[in-house]
Amino acid sequence: MRFKSLKPLFPYLKRHRLALALGGLCVLLSNGIWVWFPQVTARAVGHLRVGTTHRQLAWDAALVITVAVGRGIFLFLTRWVLIGISRDIEFDLRNDLFEHLESLSYSYYQRNRTGDLMARATNDLNAVRMLLGPAIMYSANTLVFTAAALPLMLTISHKLTLLAFLPLPIASVVIQYFGKRIHHRFEKIQAMFSDISARAQENFSGARVIRAYAQEAAEIASFETANQEYIKRSMKLVRLMGMLWPTLQLMLGCAVAIVLWVGGRTVLQGKMAVEDFAKFLFYIAQLTWPVIALGWVINIFQRGTASMGRINEILTAKPEIDDREAVLGEVEIRGDIEFRNLTFSHHGTLVLQEVNLSIAAGTSLAIVGPTGSGKTTLVNLIPRIYDAEPGTVLIDGRPIRDYRLATLRREIGFVPQETFLFSDTIRENIGFGADQATMEEVERAARAANIAHDIEGFPDRYSTMVGERGLTLSGGQKQRTAIARALLRNPRILVLDDALSSVDTQTEDKILNHLREVMQGRTTIFISHRVSTVRNADCIAVLDGGRIVETGTHDELIALDGYYTDLYNKQMLEEELEQV
Predict the structure, then answer these.
(1) Which string of DSSP letters, residue by residue, matches 300-351?
(2) How is the chain split into domains, by residue range?
(3) Whole-angstrom Cα distance, residue 98 to residue 88?
(4) Nearest to 488 by CA among 526, 462, 458, 510
(5) Where does 4-315 sit in CATH, by number?
(6) DSSP-derived pairing of the beta strands 523-527 and 539-544
(7) pTM here?
(8) Which of the listed CATH numbers 3.30.460.10, 3.40.50.300, 1.10.3210.10, 3.40.50.2300 matches domain 416-490?
(9) 4-315 and 416-490 have identical folds
(10) What is the pLDDT of residues 457-496, one digit of tens each?
(11) Is residue 549 within 8 Å of 560, Cβ to Cβ?
């Protein structure tokens, strides 16, 4: 199952197969040279034992240095190539992960916390890189050197070789035992790290709320509790790793002690030359680090497989809304919108019932109704933020699923209830989604949204940084900036979901006056609780309990003496009381 979680990495490894082949060649040459180091050293020892000249000694020393330098060169190339591949794959995987996250539906982000996704895209991705780099490199070095050294050790002594490798079966059992537990504990650590990341992200985003309610101490205590749990889980893994390495070293030490005892007696009995025994001890010494590194590799491997499993959960998530049913290519949208016998449920809750509504291209529709009546859900179906049943939402007489998402959304300017601005300049925020927009076009959109005067008052004007989520702007300024962003795209369909709720009545009038010019020739949908916002719309629809209960112009709805009339009378009374 753990190897199964690594299957998504195979295409990336295949993409770098030539570089991997080069890295493999460097591994072979590095270890092929290094395996002769004991032979060269033992030869020099043999010369010293029987007597040697200064010239021979210099030659032996030069040969030892040559082997060491040759090994060093190819070891450097091995690290450069294989570690470089792991960085390249990390780069590709991070880009693909981000691209996939961008393709997922809005509902996916409602089900998953931002901090958890961030942890997987950073901490887990780094663990996968370690698996692809150091783990592969050290494993390859260990396998190649052992395979090369084993025949040479056997030529010296079958008995000593058997004794030297005697702990390996026990080591494999120990490795399997510790490996399972490392994998399980690292999964728990990563889950806790995700929780900490999500908690920190929520605290940073909600800093104003936390301060307003004086909950700093409570949040610090809560974060400390989570952090202590993370440390507790990490220490359990540390203790496990602390047991693994000494266990492997103990087995290796026992093997060396047995070889020294048996081999030393063999030399003393004259059955083995000193230089041969020296060669054998050199091989054991060279195998010491690979065996020790094996424990580290196991740790990296278990971390990497656990992390890749978590990343794969994102990569295998399918967008709930896609282009599979699209039959139209790049087409021009006029802006006719129709909701036909629309019934829609969200997370098992019935939100809209038998909605029938038609909006002609170039006209305006205002939607009013009590909180929770389904107004926002209804307009979210137009750009397919949520997906309605096939054939219930139509654009220009065609089912909305016939259009490609890019084509559909490019023609819709959407200003949602919750205004979101990026940590960038005002110009970049207004120009978001319109990369080719000129400064003149940005300023024109700002004037249409009645935000230009405010921007001109800032020291850096359109180069002013707005801070995270537009923190440095007021609620009204954020809404007007978002309106300017929607207008700049020059969409055929403009949707304003309660987009004027944070501005005063006077500013609202100015924005609406500008919008009347902009609205000419484009389909516009307003959602508002203010009669002043919707009264001049071509048609007003009253949504209550997920149903359309009233439709008509302002005057027609007043004559009906229903919900809209009550809303109008109540707001007129409030305005009169404010003037008293």
Answers:
(1) HHHHHHHHHHHHHHHHTPPPSS-STT----S------EEEEEEEEEETTEEE
(2) 4-315, 330-411+494-502+525-580, 416-490
(3) 15
(4) 462
(5) 1.20.1560.10
(6) unpaired
(7) 0.73
(8) 3.40.50.300
(9) no
(10) 888 888 888 766 666 777 777 878 888 888 888 888 888 8
(11) no
